[in-house]
Amino acid sequence: MPPVSSKVTVFFDLDGTLFDHHHSLSCGISAIRQKYPALASFDLTSLITQYNTSLQSAYDEYLQKIITYEETDYRKVRLFFQGLGLDVPDGAKIAELRDIYRPAYRGSRRATPGSIETLVWLRKKGVCLGIITNGQEKDQLEKATAIGVQHLVDYMITSEEAGCCKPDRGIFRLAIDAFGCCLSEIYMVGDSVGSDIRGALDIGINPILFSPISTDSHLTVSGKTIPIIQNMSQLVGMIEVSLGMLD
Asked: Which domains does the chain have, with CATH numbers?
């Protein structure tokens, strides 16, 4: 293990935190809605909510080793149609739907507002930067590169590489050991209370919830007060305080 450093370190989640998953999801769902009459009777917001729920359920099944990674695409589409009360399409129809959804989703990938500028500022200040993400290494690396953040971080660890997923202590421990940094000077920024916030609290680092739709400045998790940011640029002021304390 490297010697412990007092340098400020910030870990980020990828999906829904640095990567604007909601924007890409909206573009993907809009594309299939235009092609499938059965979906036209549903408003876009309802479709997005249902698909996101189905996606998370399928991915949870993969993380729990109930299904394989290759089966997640078909599983989430089946859950999506079931959740809408529609007939579930056969395999060929699902493949057709995915061929419409995937290019629209991937072609609209972007960083969340303020993320690039914040990462650039943090790097200039000498802050160590990392990404801790649940997912396949190849997919997550491609995604981070596509949205322009991969070259701005020092390290990325995926659940595939770690052999465990957030909120498991193991994936956080690997990232912490890679930097050799002091726990009190590490921050974890993520959009999931279950994965990012609880995982950070369990390992003893400082969590920050990223929630663009929240109207609150904080929430309480396991008796701890957790700050909430709605835009990544708000992180600058918080880290400035930590940097000042180290001077």
From this structure: 9-20+110-246 (3.40.50.1000), 21-107 (1.10.150)
